[in-house]
Design a protein that fits this description.
Helix content: 55-70%
Strand content: 5-15%
Structural class: alpha/beta
CATH topology of the largest domain: Rossmann fold
CATH superfamily of the largest domain: P-loop containing nucleotide triphosphate hydrolases
GO cellular component, one term: plasma membrane
Number of strands: 12
Protein name: ABC transporter ATP-binding protein
CATH architecture of the largest domain: 3-Layer(aba) Sandwich
Keywords: ATP-binding, Membrane, Nucleotide-binding, Transmembrane, Transmembrane helix
Strand order of the largest sheet: 6-9-10-3-11-12
Radius of gyration: 37 Å
Number of domains: 3
Shape: elongated
Largest sheet: 6 strands, mixed
Distance between the termini: 86 Å
CATH class of the largest domain: Alpha Beta
Number of helices: 24
Pfam families: ABC_membrane (PF00664), ABC_tran (PF00005)
GO molecular function, one term: ATP binding
Length: 644
């Protein structure tokens, strides 16, 4: 696999049972690149190790006054220099290729898992941890994967040099053969502590990243309440903790590096001391002494890769553990491939709650708990984070459908949709049925003012479709972002569209037009809207009240307002005291007394209505709620007058 061939057609199925198993899986999937780097590494390191023998051979030729052997030594030195440069160049090329391709494989795996899990991912794993895994962790994982081949080449070179020295000069070679393993293993007792400190540093860095991500996401709100300084102090404290942890970790690695420098120096001193004694006794020549001395000196180069592989593993192991944790997550009930790639159409039914959304009908769902509503919306889309009875679409369990078919059949837009950076045209270029144009979707979502704002904010284009949207649409208001996300969902024209509070951030006038646009554009298609807005509820063909995790009432909005106290409490924001019988009774008594003989019955009924319903309207939170409640009062008064 070369860099220009990225991305992978299929990154494979990872072994995510643990961090080390995941690293081993990555290495096995890059055997070709690993062997290539190993071959070039062996060429490079053995050429470096050959220099001492060439130098010793040249010095001995000078001592013996042999011109031919000196010329041969010069040729050998030139050859070693060429192979050192060649091996180093292609070793670096192969190592970088292994690094980038391994990191790219992990990123593709994470992207695929994110797409599979959807919004359920951030409920199982913190958003900051996902960011840390997809950025810094993939680099550390790639570092270890590519460092394995270089370490293997260095280790084989060290073994070859030790064996060669024993054969070349046994008296000194034995000293080197015994001392080198001691050098390589001397730092092992320090590695566990260094690893723990590195893990602690990564944990602190992940928390700081999560805090920074949350702060940036809520910066507009923080400025509104004057909380920038508070969160700045929190992040400053978190960053200082990261700094202290990094310093402690660096101290340990500095100690390991110092040992890696000190011990080879001591070995070199021992070799020279012993070698000088042997040379005085005439047991070795000057050339042999220089050869052994040079070999020991150059061994420090491949030996440094022992330190590097230890560092790479220490830093990549927690990164691989986090990546494996994310990649091991699965859909609550995932039986991929159990059915053919079909896209069923029909009624949408949730056995857990009893919620039924008939095909071709606009169904509104009222749920008093917003979090429960969000979870139910995700269940309807087949994204449930907890195991349970799957949702049925035309009798087919969504969780047993292939993921592509399930996503084509049902689209869920949550209450906090995300807009990616790019042009508006790119935002609306999504997999779609081609039955709904971008212009129609934008009109239905009432995005006229959004288009004007995009054109005004763009200096180089007059076409709003080519205007750029900043990251997460931060240059737009909350209502504008919400309507653009709604337009994107409408463009896809799925078989079933599930909207979770699609108008919570817009004013009542815009909300009324958006509600009418949704009903018109989705006529004849299955649409489920989670909302408590009377404007949307009044346009729905079917309204379902979900209370305590199950369907409590079904009907039309106006009927449920009159007959169902629990529904009325959610829609009109009534308190328990207001929903009690005292409001109606007191109003009826007052109205009956004030009406006297001529209007006792009408007055009592009117008083009961105004005492209960009008009082209810006074306690509503939003203008559209008050208008709808007062409209209900007027309708009831007209019916009373006709009866009287």
């Amino acid at each position: 696999m070369q860099i220009q061939d990225l991305p992978y057609q299929d990154p494979g199925v990872p072994d995510a049972r643990s961090g080390p198993r995941f690293l081993w899986w990555l290495g096995r999937n890059q055997l070709g690149g690993q062997f290539k780097a190993l071959a070039w590494g062996l060429l490079h390191f053995t050429s470096v190790a050959g220099l001492p023998f060439c130098v010793g051979f040249a010095i001995q030729a000078v001592v013996d006054r042999s011109g031919s052997r000196l010329a041969l030594a010069g040729v050998l030195l030139l050859l070693c220099g060429f192979t050192i440069a060649l091996g180093d160049t292609f070793l670096h090329r192969s190592a970088v290729t292994n690094w980038i391709t391994a990191a790219a494989r992990v990123q593709q795996l994470l992207a695929r898992k994110t797409a599979q899990l959807g919004s359920a991912l951030t409920r199982r794993v913190a958003a900051g941890e996902v960011v840390a895994v997809s950025t810094g962790d993939v680099e550390k994982i790639g570092w270890f994967v590519e460092a394995v081949s270089r370490f293997t080449a260095a280790a084989l070179t060290v073994v070859l040099v030790c064996v060669g020295l024993v054969v070349y000069q046994p008296a000194l070679g034995v000293v080197v053969a015994v001392g080198v393993p001691v050098l390589a293993l001397a730092v092992l007792p320090l590695l566990p502590r260094a690893t723990r400190r590195a893990d602690f540093q990564r944990e602190k860095a992940g928390r700081a990243t999560e805090l920074a991500s949350d702060t940036v996401a809520g910066l507009r709100v923080l400025r509104g309440i004057g909380g920038e300084d508070l969160f700045l102090d929190r992040y400053r404290s978190a960053s200082q903790e990261v700094r202290h942890a990094a310093v402690r970790s660096a101290r340990m690695w500095a100690l390991i590096s110092a040992i890696q420098v000190l011990l080879p120096g001591l070995l070199m001193i021992a070799v020279v001391w012993h070698g000088v004694g042997l040379a005085r006794e005439g047991r070795i020549t000057v050339g042999e002494l220089v050869t052994v001395y040079s070999a020991v000196m150059l061994l420090t180069y491949p030996l440094r890769h022992f330190e590097e592989i230890a560092m790479a593993y220490s830093f990549s192991r927690p990164s691989a553990k986090r990546a494996a944790r994310v990649l091991s997550l699965e859909r609550a009930t995932d039986i991929e491939g159990s059915r053919e790639a079909i896209v069923p159409t029909g009624d949408l039914y949730d056995p857990a709650t009893g919620l039924l959304a008939p095909a071709g009908c606009l169904t509104a769902v009222v749920c008093g708990d917003p979090d429960a509503a969000g979870r139910l919306a995700e269940r309807l889309g087949g994204h449930a984070s907890e195991e349970g009875t799957p949702v049925l679409l035309d009798g087919v369990p969504l969780d047993e459908l292939p993921l592509d078919s399930a996503r084509t059949a049902v689209l869920v837009q949550d209450k906090d949709p995300v807009l990616l950076s790019g042009t508006l045209r790119e935002l609306l270029t999504v997999p779609a049925s081609a039955e709904v144009t971008a212009e129609e979707a934008l009109a239905a979502a009432q995005c006229g003012d959004v288009l004007e704002a995009l054109v005004q904010g763009s200096l180089d284009t007059e076409d709003p479709m080519d205007a750029r949207i900043t990251e997460r649409g931060r240059s737009l208001s909350g209502g504008q972002r919400q309507r653009l996300a709604l337009a994107r969902s409408l463009v896809t024209d799925p078989g079933v569209l599930v909207l979770d509070e699609p108008t919570s951030a817009v004013d009542s006038h815009t909300e009324a037009r958006v509600a009418d646009g949704i009903r018109s554009l989705r006529a004849g298609s299955t649409t489920v809207v989670f909302t408590s807005s009377p404007l949307l509820l009044d346009l729905a063909e079917r309204v379902v009240l979900v209370h305590d995790g199950e369907v409590a009432a079904v009907g039309l909005h106006r009927d449920l307002v009159r007959k169902e106290p629990r529904y009325r409490a959610v829609v009109t924001r009534e308190t328990d005291e207001e929903t009690g019988p005292t409001g109606g009774t007191a109003g009826g008594t007052t109205g009956g007394t004030a009406g006297g003989t001529t209007g006792g019955t009408a007055g009592g009924t009117t008083g009961g209505t105004t005492g209960g319903t009008a009082e209810k309207a006074a306690f509503t939170d939003r203008p559209q709620d008050r208008r709808t409640a007062l409209s209900d009062v007027l309708d009831e008064l007209e019916e009373i007058e006709e009866t009287a």
